[in-house]
């Protein structure tokens, strides 16, 4: 179940998971952190977010991977 701070509405960013009350997609924050951007830099880029929001984004990504159905790829 996604944290309450993350919402998905068809009328906001075509239903992409975003932080509640914003049009900031969760994947942008996760991607920035994965690329090595410091949390402080992400927060400057998205001043409506908090450090707790960044943690929630990472937890959301971890949950998405955990719940993902995987299929073995032939030939790899």
List keywords for this structure.
single chain, 76 residues, mainly alpha, Arc Repressor Mutant, subunit A, two-stranded antiparallel sheet
Could you write a compact summary of the structure shown?
The protein has helices at 26-34, 39-45, 51-67, and strands at 6-7, 18-19. It has 76 residues and is mainly α. A two-stranded antiparallel ribbon has the order 1-2.
Q: What would the average pLDDT be, to the nearest integer?
A: 90
CATH superfamily: Winged helix-like DNA-binding domain superfamily/Winged helix DNA-binding domain
Total of DSSP H or I helical runs spanning 4+ residues: 3
Shape: globular
Question: What is the CATH topology classification name?
Answer: Arc Repressor Mutant, subunit A
Count the strands? 2
Task: Count up the domains.
Answer: 1
Helix content, binned percent: 40-55%
Q: Report how far apart the termini are.
A: 32 Å
Low-confidence stretches: none
Return the structural class.
Answer: mainly alpha
Strand order of the largest sheet: 1-2
The H/E string reads: EEHHH
User: What CATH architecture would you give?
Assistant: Orthogonal Bundle
Q: What is the CATH C-level name?
A: Mainly Alpha
Residue share in β-strands: 5-15%
How would you describe this structure to a colleague?
- It is a single chain.
- By secondary structure, the chain is mainly α.
- The protein has one domain: Arc Repressor Mutant, subunit A, CATH 1.10.10.10.
- It is built from 3 helices and 2 strands, in the order E-E-H-H-H.
- A two-stranded antiparallel sheet has the order 1-2.
- The chain is globular, with a radius of gyration of 14 Å.
- The model has no long low-confidence stretch (mean pLDDT 90).
